[in-house]
Design goal:
The protein has 422 residues and is of the alpha+beta class. Helices cover 33% and strands 26% of the residues. Among the domains are: 123 residues, no CATH class; 122 residues, no CATH class. The chain is built from 11 helices and 20 strands. Strands 13-16-17-18-20-19 form a 6-stranded mixed sheet, with helices on both faces. Strands 1-7-6-12-11 form a 5-stranded mixed sheet, with helices on both faces. It has a 4-stranded mixed sheet with strand order 3-2-5-4. This is 5-methylcytosine-specific restriction enzyme subunit McrC.
Protein backbone atom coordinates (compact mmCIF):
# COMPACT_ATOMS: atom_id res chain seq x y z
CA UNK A 1 0.00 0.00 0.00
CA UNK A 2 1.25 3.49 -0.88
CA UNK A 3 0.50 6.70 0.99
CA UNK A 4 1.52 10.26 0.20
CA UNK A 5 1.64 13.03 2.78
CA UNK A 6 3.22 16.46 3.00
CA UNK A 7 5.78 17.55 5.57
CA UNK A 8 4.14 18.60 8.84
CA UNK A 9 1.24 16.28 7.93
CA UNK A 10 -0.63 14.18 10.49
CA UNK A 11 -0.82 10.37 10.61
CA UNK A 12 -3.71 8.71 12.44
CA UNK A 13 -4.44 5.08 13.31
CA UNK A 14 -7.46 3.89 11.35
CA UNK A 15 -10.42 2.57 13.33
CA UNK A 16 -12.15 -0.56 12.07
CA UNK A 17 -15.28 1.41 11.22
CA UNK A 18 -13.42 4.49 10.02
CA UNK A 19 -14.63 6.23 6.85
CA UNK A 20 -12.07 9.04 6.77
CA UNK A 21 -10.34 9.67 3.45
CA UNK A 22 -6.64 10.27 3.08
CA UNK A 23 -5.48 13.69 1.94
CA UNK A 24 -2.16 15.41 1.28
CA UNK A 25 -2.13 16.73 4.86
CA UNK A 26 -3.38 13.70 6.76
CA UNK A 27 -3.45 9.95 6.26
CA UNK A 28 -5.03 7.05 8.14
CA UNK A 29 -3.02 3.86 8.55
CA UNK A 30 -4.26 0.39 9.53
CA UNK A 31 -3.50 -0.22 13.18
CA UNK A 32 -0.74 -2.78 12.47
CA UNK A 33 0.99 -0.39 10.04
CA UNK A 34 0.61 2.50 12.47
CA UNK A 35 2.40 0.46 15.14
CA UNK A 36 5.22 -0.43 12.72
CA UNK A 37 5.73 3.26 11.97
CA UNK A 38 5.56 4.09 15.67
CA UNK A 39 8.26 1.49 16.36
CA UNK A 40 10.43 3.08 13.67
CA UNK A 41 9.91 6.54 15.19
CA UNK A 42 10.84 5.23 18.64
CA UNK A 43 13.94 3.53 17.26
CA UNK A 44 15.06 6.79 15.61
CA UNK A 45 14.52 8.50 18.93
CA UNK A 46 16.55 5.85 20.78
CA UNK A 47 19.39 5.98 18.23
CA UNK A 48 19.29 9.79 18.41
CA UNK A 49 18.91 9.98 14.66
CA UNK A 50 17.11 13.09 13.36
CA UNK A 51 13.55 12.93 14.60
CA UNK A 52 11.49 12.55 11.45
CA UNK A 53 8.18 11.75 13.13
CA UNK A 54 6.96 12.90 16.54
CA UNK A 55 4.47 10.97 18.67
CA UNK A 56 1.62 13.06 20.06
CA UNK A 57 -1.74 12.70 21.77
CA UNK A 58 -4.92 14.53 20.81
CA UNK A 59 -8.03 14.16 22.97
CA UNK A 60 -6.50 11.04 24.46
CA UNK A 61 -5.81 9.47 21.05
CA UNK A 62 -2.36 8.69 19.72
CA UNK A 63 -1.19 10.24 16.45
CA UNK A 64 2.05 11.07 14.67
CA UNK A 65 3.27 14.31 13.13
CA UNK A 66 5.73 14.41 10.24
CA UNK A 67 8.58 16.87 10.73
CA UNK A 68 10.31 18.89 8.00
CA UNK A 69 11.84 15.89 6.25
CA UNK A 70 11.03 14.67 2.75
CA UNK A 71 11.59 11.34 1.04
CA UNK A 72 10.18 7.87 1.53
CA UNK A 73 9.69 5.34 4.34
CA UNK A 74 9.08 1.67 3.60
CA UNK A 75 7.86 -0.60 6.38
CA UNK A 76 8.14 -4.36 6.84
CA UNK A 77 4.57 -4.93 5.61
CA UNK A 78 5.59 -3.28 2.28
CA UNK A 79 3.71 -0.07 3.08
CA UNK A 80 5.39 2.96 1.52
CA UNK A 81 4.88 6.45 2.87
CA UNK A 82 6.07 9.30 0.68
CA UNK A 83 6.71 12.62 2.38
CA UNK A 84 6.67 15.53 -0.08
CA UNK A 85 7.31 19.28 0.29
CA UNK A 86 4.38 21.42 1.32
CA UNK A 87 4.39 24.14 -1.30
CA UNK A 88 1.97 26.95 -2.18
CA UNK A 89 -0.10 27.46 -4.29
CA UNK A 90 -0.99 23.96 -3.21
CA UNK A 91 0.59 21.63 -5.71
CA UNK A 92 -0.70 18.20 -6.57
CA UNK A 93 1.35 15.29 -5.31
CA UNK A 94 2.68 14.82 -8.86
CA UNK A 95 3.83 18.45 -9.09
CA UNK A 96 5.30 18.29 -5.60
CA UNK A 97 7.15 15.09 -6.51
CA UNK A 98 8.62 16.67 -9.65
CA UNK A 99 9.71 19.69 -7.64
CA UNK A 100 11.32 17.48 -5.01
CA UNK A 101 13.26 15.49 -7.63
CA UNK A 102 14.54 18.74 -9.17
CA UNK A 103 15.63 19.89 -5.72
CA UNK A 104 17.29 16.58 -4.83
CA UNK A 105 19.35 16.75 -8.04
CA UNK A 106 21.25 19.71 -6.59
CA UNK A 107 22.39 17.86 -3.44
CA UNK A 108 26.13 17.07 -3.33
CA UNK A 109 27.47 13.52 -2.94
CA UNK A 110 24.10 12.00 -3.85
CA UNK A 111 23.15 10.24 -7.09
CA UNK A 112 20.04 12.20 -8.04
CA UNK A 113 21.80 14.33 -10.65
CA UNK A 114 21.49 11.28 -12.94
CA UNK A 115 17.68 11.53 -12.80
CA UNK A 116 16.55 13.13 -16.04
CA UNK A 117 13.00 14.42 -15.67
CA UNK A 118 12.37 14.04 -19.41
CA UNK A 119 13.03 10.30 -19.05
CA UNK A 120 10.87 9.88 -15.95
CA UNK A 121 7.19 9.09 -16.28
CA UNK A 122 5.96 10.80 -13.12
CA UNK A 123 2.24 10.40 -12.50
CA UNK A 124 -0.10 9.31 -9.71
CA UNK A 125 1.25 5.77 -10.02
CA UNK A 126 4.91 6.81 -9.76
CA UNK A 127 6.53 6.46 -6.37
CA UNK A 128 9.85 7.83 -5.24
CA UNK A 129 11.31 4.54 -4.03
CA UNK A 130 10.58 2.79 -7.33
CA UNK A 131 12.09 5.72 -9.24
CA UNK A 132 15.27 5.51 -7.15
CA UNK A 133 15.53 1.71 -7.35
CA UNK A 134 14.98 1.56 -11.12
CA UNK A 135 17.67 4.19 -11.65
CA UNK A 136 20.07 2.10 -9.54
CA UNK A 137 19.24 -1.01 -11.60
CA UNK A 138 19.96 0.94 -14.79
CA UNK A 139 23.39 1.85 -13.43
CA UNK A 140 24.06 -1.83 -12.62
CA UNK A 141 23.07 -2.78 -16.18
CA UNK A 142 25.46 -0.16 -17.60
CA UNK A 143 28.25 -1.49 -15.41
CA UNK A 144 27.67 -5.08 -16.53
CA UNK A 145 27.84 -3.96 -20.16
CA UNK A 146 31.26 -2.43 -19.47
CA UNK A 147 32.36 -5.43 -17.42
CA UNK A 148 32.78 -5.92 -13.69
CA UNK A 149 36.01 -4.80 -12.07
CA UNK A 150 38.44 -7.65 -11.32
CA UNK A 151 41.40 -7.55 -8.98
CA UNK A 152 44.20 -9.77 -7.74
CA UNK A 153 43.70 -11.22 -4.28
CA UNK A 154 45.89 -13.57 -2.25
CA UNK A 155 44.27 -16.99 -1.79
CA UNK A 156 45.23 -20.17 0.03
CA UNK A 157 43.64 -23.48 -0.88
CA UNK A 158 44.26 -27.08 -1.96
CA UNK A 159 44.51 -27.54 -5.74
CA UNK A 160 45.12 -30.51 -8.06
CA UNK A 161 47.98 -28.61 -9.71
CA UNK A 162 51.01 -26.75 -8.45
CA UNK A 163 50.56 -22.99 -8.68
CA UNK A 164 52.13 -20.28 -6.56
CA UNK A 165 53.91 -20.94 -3.29
CA UNK A 166 53.48 -24.23 -1.40
CA UNK A 167 52.54 -23.75 2.28
CA UNK A 168 54.62 -26.66 3.59
CA UNK A 169 52.96 -27.17 6.98
CA UNK A 170 49.46 -27.16 5.48
CA UNK A 171 50.56 -29.24 2.50
CA UNK A 172 51.86 -32.03 4.78
CA UNK A 173 48.50 -32.17 6.59
CA UNK A 174 46.66 -32.06 3.28
CA UNK A 175 48.55 -35.00 1.83
CA UNK A 176 47.58 -37.25 4.76
CA UNK A 177 44.01 -37.32 3.46
CA UNK A 178 44.28 -36.07 -0.13
CA UNK A 179 47.79 -36.81 -1.43
CA UNK A 180 46.93 -35.71 -4.97
CA UNK A 181 46.33 -32.08 -3.91
CA UNK A 182 48.81 -29.26 -3.30
CA UNK A 183 48.13 -26.65 -0.60
CA UNK A 184 49.39 -23.39 -2.07
CA UNK A 185 49.23 -19.63 -1.74
CA UNK A 186 48.67 -17.81 -5.02
CA UNK A 187 47.35 -14.63 -6.66
CA UNK A 188 43.89 -15.01 -8.21
CA UNK A 189 42.30 -12.53 -10.62
CA UNK A 190 38.68 -12.41 -9.42
CA UNK A 191 35.53 -10.28 -9.50
CA UNK A 192 34.92 -10.84 -5.79
CA UNK A 193 36.01 -7.30 -4.91
CA UNK A 194 34.63 -4.88 -2.33
CA UNK A 195 32.70 -2.72 -4.86
CA UNK A 196 31.07 -5.78 -6.44
CA UNK A 197 30.18 -7.20 -3.03
CA UNK A 198 28.45 -3.96 -2.12
CA UNK A 199 26.46 -3.97 -5.36
CA UNK A 200 25.36 -7.54 -4.72
CA UNK A 201 24.44 -6.65 -1.13
CA UNK A 202 22.16 -3.82 -2.26
CA UNK A 203 20.58 -6.02 -4.95
CA UNK A 204 20.01 -8.71 -2.34
CA UNK A 205 18.34 -6.22 0.04
CA UNK A 206 16.12 -4.80 -2.70
CA UNK A 207 15.12 -8.21 -4.08
CA UNK A 208 12.69 -8.80 -1.20
CA UNK A 209 10.13 -6.79 -3.19
CA UNK A 210 8.14 -9.26 -5.36
CA UNK A 211 7.69 -6.81 -8.23
CA UNK A 212 11.46 -6.33 -8.49
CA UNK A 213 12.54 -9.94 -8.18
CA UNK A 214 12.57 -10.78 -11.94
CA UNK A 215 14.87 -7.90 -13.04
CA UNK A 216 17.07 -8.17 -9.94
CA UNK A 217 17.41 -11.95 -10.23
CA UNK A 218 18.54 -11.48 -13.84
CA UNK A 219 21.24 -9.09 -12.66
CA UNK A 220 22.28 -11.34 -9.77
CA UNK A 221 23.28 -14.07 -12.25
CA UNK A 222 26.38 -11.98 -13.04
CA UNK A 223 27.23 -11.89 -9.30
CA UNK A 224 27.04 -15.63 -8.56
CA UNK A 225 30.76 -15.89 -7.81
CA UNK A 226 30.71 -12.76 -5.64
CA UNK A 227 30.17 -12.72 -1.87
CA UNK A 228 27.78 -10.53 0.09
CA UNK A 229 29.46 -7.79 2.10
CA UNK A 230 29.76 -8.72 5.78
CA UNK A 231 30.79 -5.19 6.83
CA UNK A 232 28.99 -2.82 4.42
CA UNK A 233 29.77 0.43 6.26
CA UNK A 234 33.51 -0.35 6.43
CA UNK A 235 33.43 -1.54 2.82
CA UNK A 236 31.80 1.75 1.75
CA UNK A 237 34.80 3.64 3.14
CA UNK A 238 37.19 1.28 1.36
CA UNK A 239 35.28 1.62 -1.92
CA UNK A 240 35.35 5.42 -1.74
CA UNK A 241 39.14 5.35 -1.28
CA UNK A 242 39.46 2.94 -4.18
CA UNK A 243 37.43 5.21 -6.48
CA UNK A 244 39.54 8.23 -5.54
CA UNK A 245 42.89 6.45 -5.82
CA UNK A 246 42.60 4.06 -8.74
CA UNK A 247 40.95 3.53 -12.09
CA UNK A 248 37.39 3.00 -10.88
CA UNK A 249 35.66 5.81 -12.79
CA UNK A 250 33.02 3.36 -14.05
CA UNK A 251 31.93 2.84 -10.44
CA UNK A 252 31.57 6.51 -9.46
CA UNK A 253 27.84 6.90 -10.18
CA UNK A 254 26.87 3.52 -8.82
CA UNK A 255 28.87 4.22 -5.65
CA UNK A 256 26.56 7.14 -4.86
CA UNK A 257 23.51 4.88 -5.15
CA UNK A 258 25.17 2.20 -2.99
CA UNK A 259 26.02 4.85 -0.41
CA UNK A 260 22.42 6.07 -0.40
CA UNK A 261 20.91 2.61 0.08
CA UNK A 262 23.47 1.37 2.60
CA UNK A 263 23.85 4.49 4.73
CA UNK A 264 23.60 3.78 8.43
CA UNK A 265 20.29 5.58 8.90
CA UNK A 266 18.58 4.04 5.85
CA UNK A 267 18.00 0.41 6.79
CA UNK A 268 16.32 -0.29 10.09
CA UNK A 269 17.25 -3.67 11.53
CA UNK A 270 17.36 -5.36 14.87
CA UNK A 271 18.03 -8.98 15.83
CA UNK A 272 18.96 -9.49 12.19
CA UNK A 273 15.38 -8.94 11.02
CA UNK A 274 14.47 -6.57 8.21
CA UNK A 275 12.22 -3.80 9.43
CA UNK A 276 12.18 -1.07 6.84
CA UNK A 277 13.95 1.37 4.57
CA UNK A 278 13.95 5.13 5.04
CA UNK A 279 15.46 7.55 2.52
CA UNK A 280 14.84 10.93 4.10
CA UNK A 281 16.30 14.39 3.62
CA UNK A 282 15.98 17.54 5.79
CA UNK A 283 13.92 19.98 3.75
CA UNK A 284 15.86 23.01 5.00
CA UNK A 285 19.08 21.63 3.49
CA UNK A 286 17.32 20.53 0.29
CA UNK A 287 15.75 23.97 -0.21
CA UNK A 288 18.93 25.80 0.72
CA UNK A 289 21.00 23.84 -1.78
CA UNK A 290 18.42 24.20 -4.56
CA UNK A 291 18.05 27.97 -4.14
CA UNK A 292 21.84 28.39 -3.94
CA UNK A 293 22.30 26.53 -7.20
CA UNK A 294 19.61 28.61 -8.94
CA UNK A 295 21.12 31.87 -7.67
CA UNK A 296 24.55 30.82 -8.87
CA UNK A 297 23.19 30.31 -12.39
CA UNK A 298 21.49 33.74 -12.35
CA UNK A 299 24.43 35.78 -11.02
CA UNK A 300 27.54 33.93 -12.21
CA UNK A 301 28.02 35.90 -15.43
CA UNK A 302 28.60 39.29 -13.78
CA UNK A 303 29.13 38.48 -10.12
CA UNK A 304 30.99 36.10 -7.86
CA UNK A 305 28.65 33.81 -5.91
CA UNK A 306 30.02 32.25 -2.71
CA UNK A 307 28.03 29.68 -0.73
CA UNK A 308 28.57 28.99 2.98
CA UNK A 309 31.42 31.52 3.36
CA UNK A 310 33.32 31.09 6.65
CA UNK A 311 35.97 33.82 6.86
CA UNK A 312 34.33 36.04 9.51
CA UNK A 313 33.88 35.66 13.27
CA UNK A 314 31.57 37.40 15.72
CA UNK A 315 34.45 37.74 18.23
CA UNK A 316 37.88 38.56 16.83
CA UNK A 317 39.95 39.39 19.97
CA UNK A 318 41.72 38.00 21.92
CA UNK A 319 40.87 34.89 19.87
CA UNK A 320 38.48 34.30 17.00
CA UNK A 321 35.21 32.82 18.26
CA UNK A 322 31.71 32.11 16.97
CA UNK A 323 32.22 31.63 13.24
CA UNK A 324 29.72 33.21 10.86
CA UNK A 325 28.40 31.35 7.82
CA UNK A 326 25.89 33.17 5.62
CA UNK A 327 24.22 31.02 2.98
CA UNK A 328 25.23 33.19 0.00
CA UNK A 329 27.47 36.18 -0.66
CA UNK A 330 27.26 38.06 -3.95
CA UNK A 331 30.46 39.99 -4.76
CA UNK A 332 31.06 42.45 -7.57
CA UNK A 333 34.22 42.61 -9.69
CA UNK A 334 35.89 44.75 -6.99
CA UNK A 335 35.35 41.98 -4.39
CA UNK A 336 32.76 44.09 -2.54
CA UNK A 337 29.84 42.18 -1.02
CA UNK A 338 26.83 43.73 -2.78
CA UNK A 339 24.22 41.25 -1.53
CA UNK A 340 24.03 38.83 1.36
CA UNK A 341 21.36 36.11 1.32
CA UNK A 342 20.05 33.68 3.91
CA UNK A 343 17.59 30.96 2.91
CA UNK A 344 14.84 29.66 5.20
CA UNK A 345 12.36 26.86 4.59
CA UNK A 346 9.87 28.27 7.09
CA UNK A 347 6.28 29.45 6.94
CA UNK A 348 5.87 33.13 7.78
CA UNK A 349 2.68 35.20 8.02
CA UNK A 350 2.63 38.92 7.27
CA UNK A 351 -0.48 39.35 9.44
CA UNK A 352 1.32 38.10 12.54
CA UNK A 353 3.52 40.13 14.84
CA UNK A 354 6.94 40.54 13.18
CA UNK A 355 5.50 38.52 10.28
CA UNK A 356 6.08 35.40 12.33
CA UNK A 357 9.79 35.61 11.53
CA UNK A 358 12.12 34.01 14.05
CA UNK A 359 13.92 36.79 15.93
CA UNK A 360 17.17 34.82 15.77
CA UNK A 361 17.00 34.86 11.96
CA UNK A 362 16.68 38.66 12.01
CA UNK A 363 19.51 39.20 14.49
CA UNK A 364 21.68 36.78 12.57
CA UNK A 365 21.33 38.50 9.20
CA UNK A 366 21.85 41.91 10.86
CA UNK A 367 25.18 40.68 12.27
CA UNK A 368 26.10 39.29 8.84
CA UNK A 369 25.40 42.70 7.29
CA UNK A 370 27.60 44.46 9.85
CA UNK A 371 30.50 42.01 9.60
CA UNK A 372 30.51 41.84 5.80
CA UNK A 373 29.77 45.57 5.39
CA UNK A 374 26.82 44.81 3.14
CA UNK A 375 23.89 47.19 2.68
CA UNK A 376 21.69 44.79 0.73
CA UNK A 377 20.39 41.90 2.83
CA UNK A 378 17.88 39.26 1.73
CA UNK A 379 15.94 36.58 3.59
CA UNK A 380 14.30 34.09 1.22
CA UNK A 381 11.17 32.25 2.36
CA UNK A 382 8.80 30.08 0.32
CA UNK A 383 5.56 31.72 -0.72
CA UNK A 384 2.44 30.71 1.19
CA UNK A 385 -1.16 31.90 1.43
CA UNK A 386 -0.21 34.43 4.14
CA UNK A 387 3.00 35.62 2.51
CA UNK A 388 2.66 36.39 -1.18
CA UNK A 389 4.81 39.40 -2.05
CA UNK A 390 8.26 40.68 -1.10
CA UNK A 391 8.62 43.14 1.75
CA UNK A 392 11.39 45.73 1.87
CA UNK A 393 12.47 46.89 5.32
CA UNK A 394 15.13 49.42 6.29
CA UNK A 395 17.62 48.85 9.09
CA UNK A 396 18.80 52.46 9.38
CA UNK A 397 16.87 55.74 9.46
CA UNK A 398 18.81 57.01 6.48
CA UNK A 399 17.57 53.94 4.55
CA UNK A 400 21.03 53.00 3.34
CA UNK A 401 20.82 49.44 4.62
CA UNK A 402 17.79 47.44 3.52
CA UNK A 403 16.46 43.98 4.20
CA UNK A 404 14.25 42.29 1.60
CA UNK A 405 11.94 39.53 2.80
CA UNK A 406 11.77 37.66 -0.50
CA UNK A 407 8.83 35.42 -1.42
CA UNK A 408 10.03 32.47 -3.53
CA UNK A 409 7.31 31.31 -5.92
CA UNK A 410 7.87 27.76 -7.15
CA UNK A 411 5.60 28.10 -10.19
CA UNK A 412 7.48 31.12 -11.53
CA UNK A 413 10.86 30.35 -9.96
CA UNK A 414 11.12 34.12 -9.57
CA UNK A 415 14.70 34.29 -8.28
CA UNK A 416 15.72 36.43 -11.27
CA UNK A 417 13.87 39.25 -9.45
CA UNK A 418 16.83 39.36 -7.08
CA UNK A 419 18.71 41.21 -9.83
CA UNK A 420 16.23 44.09 -9.47
CA UNK A 421 17.12 44.44 -5.78
CA UNK A 422 20.78 45.22 -6.49
Amino acid sequence: MHYTICEYGTIYPQDDNSTEENSFEEIFLPLSTFHLLKTLALEYQERKVNQVISLQYQQGKELMKVKNFVGVIELADDTQIEILPKIYPYASSVESKKMLINMLKTLPNLPFITLQESHLQIDNQSFLLEIFIHQFLKEVEKLLQQGLQHDYILKEEAQPYLSGKVIVSQDIKQKLTQPHLFYTQFQAFVADTIPNRLIKTVLHQLSRRPSLQPPINNLLIAFEQISLSKTPLADLIAMEKDIRSYHSKSYEKIFLWIQLFLQESAWTNWAGDYFGLALLFPMQQVFERYISQQINVIFQENYQVISQEKSKYLIVFPIQQFGLQPDILIKDKNEKVVMLIDIKWKIIDEKKRNMGIDEQDMYQIYVYGQKYDCENLVLIYPQNSDFQEHKILFLEENQTKKLTIFSWKWQENNLTNLLDIL
